[in-house]
Automatic annotation (TrEMBL):
Stored InterPro entries: ATPase_NBD, ROK, ROK_cs
PANTHER family in UniProt: N-ACETYLMANNOSAMINE KINASE (PTHR18964:SF169), ROK (REPRESSOR, ORF, KINASE) FAMILY (PTHR18964)
Signal sequence region: none
PROSITE patterns: ROK
Alphabetized SUPFAM superfamilies for the sequence: Actin-like ATPase domain
Name used for this protein in its record: ROK family protein
Amino acid sequence: MQSEGAAVRPATAEAPSGGRLVAALDIGGTKIAGALVDGEGRLLARSLRPTPAAQDGATVMAAVAEVLGELTADPAWVRVTAVGIGSAGPVDASHGTVSPVNVPGWRGFPLVERVREVTGPLPVTLTGDGVAIAAAEHWQGAARGYDNALCMVVSTGVGGGFVLNGALHPGPTGNAGHIGHISVDLDGPLCPCGARGCVERLASGPNIARRALENGWRPQAGQEPTAEAVAAAARAGDPVAAASFARAAQALAAGIAAAATLVEIEVAVIGGGVAGAGEVLFAPLRDHLRAYATLSFASGVRVLPAQLGTDAGLVGAAAAAFGGVLRARG
Ligand SMILES: [Zn+2]
């Protein structure tokens, strides 16, 4: 199955794969997705399992092996030359291990070694899921054509990854760009990570909903109190709902301004469910960004919505496996 949006434009003029494919895995707290991906980012075969996140580590790995088993059984598997894995983090790419917060059965789990037991001697590239999203948006999405970008996912959590000097910048362990856990409020609320005032603690979907509820917003009858419901209320003119999104936007703006000032990103791409709120988020975000990104070299940073949807993790894992982000010529 080819995914809508994953290959709406041709990739580089010189498709680097020469007919070769990579096997991509996107491992999260709720699902384990796999695909065979070609050099233009098209998904040629897919497999999906729910993540048995509450089970022991061997059971989770068995689900990964099932996904891989479906891919290795595909006739196109003979063209696969590498494996790319994007995993919920933290990951440790230098050791090939993962410790996803939402999968307690995996702590220092030797994922790369276990995947190799299924796939044989193919090279395996492991990155954090935020880094994979950055690779995907740079290859096929909104960051295409930018040499310096921060790509973020704002959803149940907040994550991200960097493209710097035209290349993916995963950092030594594959976690660089994890903007959700930089502090933008020195004495702010305690974050589950142990720090205070993290971007995620202020800007994630659950925190947008929690803050709105605390300030008197109520969902309509039969409606769940989600960030999506808060966004709908904000669009309808509810000031408490709008204020909760504005506060999230302020936290994101401070984080983006810090990134622009530190490494001169030209663009920040924002995806994930919270970004689906559209202008309810992006309008106050642009306003706050003007207040925080003040220095001449940082003030031009642009903010764009992500273009890739739920396949971004797979496309990004594939991009990383193809040997770094492929330079776009768009
Ligand atoms: Zn934190």
